[in-house]
Specification:
Layout (H helix, E strand, L loop, with lengths): L1 E4 L2 E4 L3 H12 L4 E4 L7 H6 L16 H13 L8 E2 L7 E2 L4 H14 L3 E3 L3 E8 L2 E9 L2 E6 L2 E4 L5 H5 L4 E2 L13 E4 L3 H10 L10 H6 L4 H6 L10 E3 L2 H4 L6 H4 L19 E5 L7 E4 L10 H25 L7 E5 L10 E2 L7 H5 L7 E5 L3 E4 L7 E4 L7 E4 L11 E3 L8 H7 L2 H20 L9 H10 L5
Parallel strand pairs: 1-9, 2-3, 2-10, 3-6, 10-22
Antiparallel strand pairs: 4-5, 7-8, 8-9, 11-17, 12-15, 12-16, 13-14, 14-15, 18-21, 19-20
Helix pairs in contact: 1-14, 3-4
The protein binds flavin-adenine dinucleotide (FAD).
């Protein structure tokens, strides 16, 4: 088996991992990035957006490398000319659509510019440990088994694959209590003007302004919001509230097994009738990403993951039929892209030096070791109503800190995590998992890993003042 040495190894080149690798390498660490697929960008590439860069008051909460990515995409023609779009639907202060293919190119160029050793089509096999100290990873690709060694490994696999194999403690909710997963897809040939026209005429069909700050302090109403909307970029994150009630004619109900307007009677439309969310691409007016399918399973179970793909495809074709037959603007639409895998919202979260809580998020808590800011509401599965998602907002439209300690696993040394497996409660991860936040603390993880190597310390002992100074110097918002 071939052995190679680096300063920092990042496993998972998705939303958080690609940015972590660029940050580590830019800080002078020889960095290797291991990624199972043939591209970078992970779930945010699938979504074609990174959100939210702003809180509900319109103040920017994420910049640094995430903003640099948006600026690069703007230069490449892969972002909307207005960059971050206001999000009047009231979930997340802004919405930033990015062209998914140019996002891949931009991330490749950013890693190349920093001499990151890119190991694509390569999967983690096992973790090399010395008792509770991670020393490296064994990975497999077309040329066989390799051992990669480094003083610091960053787990950015989303599912905490490295941390768990190294023996870290973690929590994971039952599939029913966790946020659902989704097979994302895009359709082309959409008349988005006709769709928005319908939204303007009937704002009640859409989930708008759930944020109490916008509703009660700014006194916005769905009608007021929709009056100002000219095209889909003025309202870029639309949820259809109830497809059965608002779109499917009663004459067609029996065909779908529908018996009533409310949830209990949605028949075969049940998985997605209230979760239809439609997101535009930055420049293609006629192409949208559909966040519609809803699959409940354990994302860390190989067999369940296979079955989830089948369920996702089945639901997708049903949803497409609903769109084409009933939703204005979608009559001539056709399938443009099916993303290669079901996207996962929730699986394992490590037990870190600190666990971010619901109270921290709600009350906009500041921490001495804050290394990134979050502002998105906490999406959580309702404990009382199965299949219903609730949103718990940050008070007064503000934002909160994500502490460095959430990236540091208890007891295990030589390891940091970045991305949705960070240490947080079930509620708090519902906010901190968003793409812009994953990039922001991905940058912090990469910078901290390089600092640890330079100062010959474990990640747990990194000089926080120095880390925060370094991040600020790189235009991160702390
Ligand atoms: C359906 C859905 C809708 C969402 N909507 C939005 C939205 O509109 N805007 C937004 O900003 N956020 C949204 N989010 C949240 C956000 O996209 C994710 O939480 C975030 O992208 C997670 O980033 P990550 O780096 O942790 O994981 P990912 O981006 O998923 O990256 C993990 C990477 O690790 C790789 N990997 C995994 N295991 C291994 C292994 N064993 N070996 C090698 N490589 C491995 C994967 O291939 C992947 O590239 C959504 C999430 C979902 C699922």
């Amino acid at each position: 088996m071939k052995i190679q040495d680096f300063d920092v190894i990042v496993v998972g080149g998705g939303t958080a991992g690609a940015i972590a690798a660029v940050a580590a390498a830019r800080s002078g660490a020889s960095t290797c990035l291991v990624e199972a697929t043939g591209h970078l960008g992970g779930t945010c590439h699938a979504l074609a957006n990174v959100t939210p860069f702003h809180n509900s008051r319109g103040e920017q909460v994420v910049a640094g490398l995430a903003q640099e990515l948006v600026d690069r995409l703007t230069a490449l023609g892969g972002a909307h000319q207005r960059g971050h779009l206001p999000n009047p639907a009231g979930i997340g202060g802004s919405f930033t659509p990015l062209d998914p293919d140019l996002m891949k190119l931009a991330l490749f160029e950013m890693t190349e510019a920093e001499n990151v050793a890119l190991w694509l089509h390569t999967v983690l096999v096992e973790v090399v440990t010395d008792d509770t100290h991670v020393r490296g990873v064994r990975v497999h690709n077309k040329s066989g088994l390799h051992e990669l060694r480094a003083p610091v490994v960053i787990d950015a696999t989303g599912d905490a694959d490295v941390a768990v194999r190294a023996g870290a403690q973690y929590s994971q909710d039952t599939p029913e209590a966790a946020l659902n997963a989704t097979l994302l897809f895009r359709v082309a040939g959409v008349d988005t003007d006709a769709f928005i026209d319908d939204a303007r005429r009937a704002p009640h069909k859409f989930v708008l302004l759930a944020d109490p700050y916008l509703r009660d302090i700014e006194h916005l109403t769905p009608e007021k919001v929709m009056q100002g909307v000219q095209d889909i970029y003025d309202c870029p994150y639309i949820y259809l509230a109830n497809v059965v009630r608002d779109y499917v004619p009663r004459a067609d109900w029996s065909e779908w097994g529908v018996t009533a307007e409310d949830k209990g009677g949605w028949g075969r439309l049940q998985p997605f009738a209230a979760r239809f969310s439609i997101m535009p691409l930055p420049l293609r007016h006629d192409v949208v990403t559909l966040n519609v399918t809803s699959i409940t399973f354990d994302a860390t179970d190989g067999a369940q993951r296979s079955r989830a793909e089948i369920t996702g495809h089945r639901q997708m074709h049903q949803a497409l039929e609903v769109l084409r037959r009933y939703v204005p603007g979608f009559g001539s639409s056709y399938l443009h892209t099916v993303l290669p895998a079901v996207s996962i919202r929730a699986s394992r979260r490590i037990a870190g030096e600190y666990e971010l809580t619901r109270e921290d998020v709600e009350s906009g808590t500041r921490f001495d070791d804050g290394i990134a800011r979050g502002s998105y509401p906490m999406s959580v599965q309702s404990a009382t109503q199965p299949g219903v998602r609730e949103h718990l907002f940050v008070r007064n439209g503000g934002d909160y800190d994500i502490p460095y300690r959430c990236l540091v696993p208890e007891r295990i040394d030589g390891l940091l995590v970045a991305g949705r497996c960070l240490s947080a409660t079930r509620e708090a991860i519902g906010s901190a998992r968003m793409g812009a936040q994953c990039m922001a603390y991905g940058e912090a993880a990469g910078t901290a890993a390089a600092l640890a190597v330079a100062d010959n310390r474990t990640p747990r002992a990194v000089d926080i003042a120095k880390l925060r100074m370094e991040l600020r110097a790189r235009h991160a918002i702390l």
